[in-house]
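Cross-check.
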Amino acid sequence: MSVLLNTYLLAFFLSVSLSLLCLKYKKYLYKIYSQYNSIQKIHEGYVPPIGGFIMFLAFYLSILFYPESFFTNQIHIFAGSILILLIGLLEDFSGKIKPIYRLITIFIASLIFVTYQKSLPKIEIPILEIILNNIPFAEELFYALGLTILANGMNMVDGMNGLAGMTSLSIILAISSILTLYGGIEIYFSELSLLMIVLIVFLFFNFPYGKIFLGDSGAYWIGWILGVWIIEIYAALPLYTWGALLILFYPIYEVIFSFTRKIFSGKSPFQPDTNHLHIKLYFFLKADNERSIKFNSFVTVCLMPFWIIPSIMIVWTYFYSHLTILFIVIMILTYNFYYKTIPNRD
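Predicted model, tokenized:
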């Protein structure tokens, strides 16, 4: 049996075992977590927000037994992951870490990554490219901010059973498609497969019944690590970088839309609210009914265009790269149409 196959089996075993262990002893987690009551909470009862932590452990422990892994000597990626995981766990089990502190921590982790990165993708926007190339440290700050936005965006779309998980899985499939078409899949295949395995196990416990949640730690980390991969790949291959924005459209646009919406409403962009697209859709579907898992999970299905279509569109950009920006515009218009059509919660 090959080393890689053993690594896959270990990742699967760790993911399943740790998830079952978490469910068996969740009453002890609840004692730590019992005071937390987010305004965005839409589910009944207590669900352990530890799915992301389990994924992280299974992923990195499995990599220890696979010395050929791309991540083996990437200490700056591991250091950033640890910072993000810790600040997320503190929020998951206390609910008292202010959003600005979490964002600063993610930004610092992102700076660690981009500072030690050998190369960064080139932007096909002439004015922006000139700025990034001529102002010291501007390129590093730009990509660190991008990673921070992506991690925060993945956390924003979390909350509905399977939504963040399906979005992440779709991004992995998009990355795999790009690598298969352009070449280079063999470099990242083992890690992409490992992450897919632990993510699918998580989704088994998360969708549709919501037995385990990603938590802030998991949502931040999975969004960040996928962004790291995108930067690595788009820096290594001669790819049209607008394609990266298409792949990551949903979590990134969720942040941009939410930020501007709150600013124009006179609210703090750093404070959570219940006017995100998925939450609005949940309360619209639920109407006057009691809270139910079926409404929660159905929202994920209804929002499928945002987490699956970009990953399909990205394949077309291999043949017609000039369509990339058009696809992004279509996604923006579709998102805005969804948002404007669904009434606000009374």
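The chain has one domain: 3-341. The chain has a mean pLDDT of 87. Passed to J.P. for a second look.
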